[in-house]
Each structure stands twice: as structure tokens, then as C-alpha cells.
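Onboarding guide, step 5: your first structure request.
Type a short instruction followed by the sequence, for example:

Predict the 3D structure of this protein.
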Amino acid sequence: MPVLRRSRCLLVPRWPRPDNVAVTEPTVPATSAGQGKPAAWASLLAAELSEAPLTPSTIGAVLRVARDVAHATERLNAPLCAYVAGRHVEARLREGCDEDAAIAEVEAAVRRLLEGRPTG
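The system replies with C-alpha cells like these:
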């Protein structure tokens, strides 16, 4: 018999886990990249891909954009918008634009779009 648990505003059945199933939590490998710090996975991925680590201001901007998009539209739009934002910033850097200015363009575009509240 399932146990009811509260998930946001809904009661969702939660089936008991069989005793023979191991439960493991995803972990960040202990490295000098900063286990336990915000964006530790982003730092690990950057290192794995031989990319420069994200600056604290970039991390903050990306997280703000993702948060605003997730709260104002369908939540799945947040990672997709972060990807599109990254593509825009990379393209603007190739054009000679400053990274902070390119990120500011993204934030301004997100604000303009959210004022109209697209829902898709």
C-alpha cells in the first residue's frame, strides 16, 4: 500500500521501496574544484571540457535568468534558456563584445520577454 506524501500542493502516492533495492545519492567527486560549493558540477564540467571556470558574477547571472524563467513560464524552459543564453554570449564574445555586456543583453532580453509572460 502506498504512503501519501505532500508534493507541493498535491498528495502523491509513494510506494515503499523494496528492501533489495539500493538507494544512492548523486555526489560530486571530492576535488579541488569545490565540493559543496554552489555550481561545483559546473566547475567540474568546465574542467572536463577544458573550459575556463565560471566567474561568480556569471554564475549569479545564469542562476537569476534560470530562476526567473522557471518561475514565470514552464519550468523546463529554464535549462533551455540557459543554453540559448550561453550560445548568445559565445557569439557576442566572438564579435568582440565584453562577457559582462553580453550577459547583460541576455538578462535584458529575458526581462522583456517575461513582461509579456509567454507561457510556452
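Each response can be followed by summary notes, for example: The longest strand covers residues 3-7.
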